[in-house]
Model the fold of this input.
Amino acid sequence: MLTKRIIPCFDVDNGRVVKGISFVALRDAGDPVELAAAYDAGGADELVFLDITASSDGRTSVYDMIARTADQVFIPLTVGGGIRTTQDMRMMLEVGADQVSVNTAAVERPELIAEGAYRFGSQCITVAIDAKRVPGTTPDAPRWEVFVHGGRTPTGRDVIEWARETVQQGAGELLVTSMDTDGHRRGYDLPLLRAVTQAVEVPVIASGGAGSPEHLYDALTDGGADAVLAASIFHFGTYSVGSIKAYLAERGVPIRPVRPETHN
Amino acid sequence: MIAIVDYGMGNLRSVQKAFEAVGHEAVVTRDARMIGDASHVVLPGVGAFGDCMANLDRYGLIDPVCRAVQSGKPFLGICLGLQLLFTESEEFGRHQGLNLIPGKVRRFPSGLSEAAGTVAAHLKVPHMGWNEVRVTQAAPPLRGIEGGAHLYFVHSYYVEPEDATMVSTMTDYGLSFVSSIWRDNVFACQFHPEKSQLIGLRMIRNFAEWQ
Done:
């Protein structure tokens, strides 16, 4: 049976891991390569790197960081941040990424998704969507708006419509971050997750708001997510991947065991 | 020497690094002579089927790959490198493969489902993540890998060999599909051993030590 994935996320700024509280007030949480190796050994199913300075800084340091990580870590790596062309995608894949994540550039030019999917296969293309609840919409008929540029710029686009369009273009997976819950550690945005997972056929990674193992359980069950992404609860040592996996397995969620299943 | 066939597609570095991590040097090459001289040949794969075939052709690699398969030396196909061995694929229209293994490459149908413990799961395509294998034949690269081991998959298409006796593992995702095949010197798998942590590295080492 396909297991649910637990994905530590690294927001990377100038080669260091940081994590924002609602996209501001960054704190340094460590060296990406060291962290990646530790998470690999600790049972993480995949790692996501989001280069939050990508649009303003040079790309070289990111390529180098991904290459060094890929040398040591033998689980899937997804890299996003500032990817604007299929050439950018190709560079990331060549240095060791398995998937690339696009956000702002895809909103500005949705054909980028189709170009990437045709060139590298849909499974390589993750579309990241930053969603913010539209003020005034009611809890029984909520709507969310797509934001870009790291959550700074509203687009006027509806999240569910955009999610459907990205899949039509060839997105292989969606990474859905709630800007309302991100960094607050009070749980994922379950209505948002339910709405997106019911609207599309591709896997959905839940992001934004994890503060306890129960929040991850809720996202994977009630929210319908295929994977959960979290940063602060892992980076600051609140919970280990292993302890969260034990909790989820106990509650009947299919999980890849942390201990390797080989013998001589 | 282990040769990893470079046809300009996807993440070859991680395959090479996986061999290095288990103490075996591997070269990434598109040189026909190096592939011919290699003791082991790996055909990795990330990308779209049609593009990959076009690139193999563009770089003059169709003959070297076919010769490697027929040479009797250990050959490893990974993901698309498994699918390319087959007759044809229905990815983005119809594409001819290398036709070394009679059979087809099909897309997972939409609307698959399975009961996942307490969670009723509606299955997504691509099939992405860690899933179990059932070992049906003890292929040399699978030595030490137990049934129920979790391996990393990411694909929307799966192979259907005409000859069922070459199946070495099966995996369930709404339907039961062939997740690896073994025939003589050829082992090819839908999962990514280079992305499957310690179990995957074990498989990489087994392959490197396969004579």
Observations:
- Chain A is about 35% helix and 25% strand.
- The longest strand of chain A covers residues 5-13.
- Chain A has one domain: 5-250.
